[in-house]
Amino acid sequence: EKAVNLKKDLAEMQEWMTQAEEEYLEKDFEYKSPEELENAVEEMKRAKEDVLQKEVRVKILKDNIKMLATKVPSGGQDLMTELNVVLENYQLLCNRIRGKCHTLEEVWSCWIELLQYLDLETAWLNTLEERVQMTENLSDKLDAVNDALESLESVLRHPADNRTQIRELGQTLIDGGILDDIISEKLEAFNARYEELSHLAVSRQISLEQQLQTMRETDHMLQVLQENLVELDRQLTSYLTDRVDAFQMPQEAQ
Questions:
Q1: Could you report the per-residue pLDDT of 82-118, keeping only the tens digit for each?
Q2: Coiled-coil regions in this chain (predicted)?
Q3: CA distance to 17, 100, 179, per residue, from 30 (Å)
Q4: CA 186: distance to chain centroid?
Q5: What are the boundaries of each domain within the chain?
């Protein structure tokens, strides 16, 4: 009777494992929204806990069959064979569910990381847009133009590492068919804004550099002219002091 009960327990255990495999490992999942992906992660966590909780039952079953095989070798041999099959299948099920759970957790982590990088780069784009707007309607003072140029250049020196991460994380998820529509839409919008703002910023940078160069050249010309006027004023003053007749002066002084 005990052998019959143990045999029944083995059959029930095998049936449960078959159902668990069908439910958690053989279903085709499509993750088209973050909610679907998050739900799948939570489901696989519960599946892993459920499977691992059966470890106690498996151990008790194993101990009972071994004890029976020791007491009744002839009756326990067949059960030991069935037990080994169940143990092998159980271990395989545990490994596969652990693996799938780990994979889904990694995918979810990848999605969260992508969102974080997008937030960082969006904040940078917002700052870049503000600096570009600050270059409009500048005063005609050299210091104001120089400060606006330096401020814009400091933002443009932003490293490209985050954008590389966005591209790689997005492509990894899209290649896996995970949230591909949502990610493609987000990346398209981000890349379009990045291209537009970066081109506008570089164009404004070049314009400010040219404006600054022109203003510096003009300042230099004015400085030279001022120096010449000062020298001319000194000469004229000396001529007047010496009561020199105008017709005796050089032509430019006249």
A1: 889 999 999 999 999 999 999 999 999 999 999 999 9
A2: 3-64, 125-155, 208-242
A3: 24, 14, 9
A4: 12
A5: 1-211
Tell me which fold the domain 1-211 belongs to. Methane Monooxygenase Hydroxylase; Chain G, domain 1 (1.20.58)
Do 72 and 108 meet the contact criterion of CB atoms below 8 Å apart?
no
pTM above 0.85, yes or no: no
CB of 31 closer than 8 Å to CB of 176: no
Locate 253 and state its tokens: 């002084």
